[in-house]
């Protein structure tokens, strides 16, 4: 049974890190609602296994968020495939990745669009490094890659973003 002190400590931790973790989840999901679901699922998974998992809780939660997002995407893809097989070919032109209208100002939308154009491997390293403030070693653990690979992907992502966003800065 959890003590009141443990509950308050956990609640304080979630309040302190939850918003950044939600931003992280948002990069791996198709909507804010999906990101919130993935984050909740990741917290539950982590809570159930925390005593068995040594290491930094944020890095472990990021790993759990990523896995939950992958699981959700797979479930959604399977459901979509079943629905498409059941329907007539009327929905053939629809894309799986719909942009949500009205999600902030024009500059933020441009930055988010530039992020989405990055290869997934670069985007996830960038999100973990900047928004989660993880070290390259922690990023490597979360993504199951060497720290040097995480650092390289981070540099490639920054260079690609710089090239994409340069016209905005000078225009």
Automatic annotation (TrEMBL):
Q: Which UniProt keywords apply?
A: DNA-binding, Sigma factor, Transcription, Transcription regulation
What does the entry give for GO biological process?
Answer: DNA-templated transcription initiation
Residues of the RNA polymerase sigma-70 region domain:
14-79, 114-163
Cite the GO molecular-function annotations of the record.
DNA binding; sigma factor activity
InterPro entries in the cross-refs: RNA_pol_sigma-70-like, RNA_pol_sigma-70_dom, RNA_pol_sigma70_r2, RNA_pol_sigma70_r4, RNA_pol_sigma_r2, RNA_pol_sigma_r3/r4-like, WH-like_DNA-bd_sf
Q: Where is the signal peptide?
A: none
Q: Which family does it belong to?
A: Belongs to the sigma-70 factor family. ECF subfamily.
NCBIfam families in the cross-refs: sigma70-ECF
Task: Quote the protein name from its UniProt record.
Answer: ECF RNA polymerase sigma factor SigW
Organism listed in the record: Lacunisphaera limnophila
Gene that encodes it: sigW_4
């Amino acid at each position: 049974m959890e003590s009141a002190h443990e509950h308050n400590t956990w609640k304080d931790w979630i309040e302190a890190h939850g918003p950044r973790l939600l931003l992280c989840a948002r990069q791996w999901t198709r909507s804010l609602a999906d990101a919130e679901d993935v984050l909740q699922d990741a917290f539950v998974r982590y809570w159930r296994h925390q005593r068995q998992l040594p290491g930094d809780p944020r890095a472990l939660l990021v790993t759990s968020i990523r896995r939950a997002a992958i699981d959700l995407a797979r479930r959604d893809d399977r459901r979509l495939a079943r629905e498409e097989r059941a329907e007539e070919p009327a929905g053939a032109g629809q894309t799986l990745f719909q942009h949500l209208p009205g999600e902030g100002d024009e500059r933020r939308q441009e930055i988010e669009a530039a992020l989405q154009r990055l290869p997934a491997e670069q985007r996830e390293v960038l999100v973990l490094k900047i928004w989660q403030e993880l070290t390259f070693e922690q990023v490597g653990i979360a993504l199951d890659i060497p720290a040097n690979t995480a650092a390289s992907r981070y540099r490639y992502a920054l260079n690609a973003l710089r090239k994409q966003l340069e016209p905005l800065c000078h225009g």
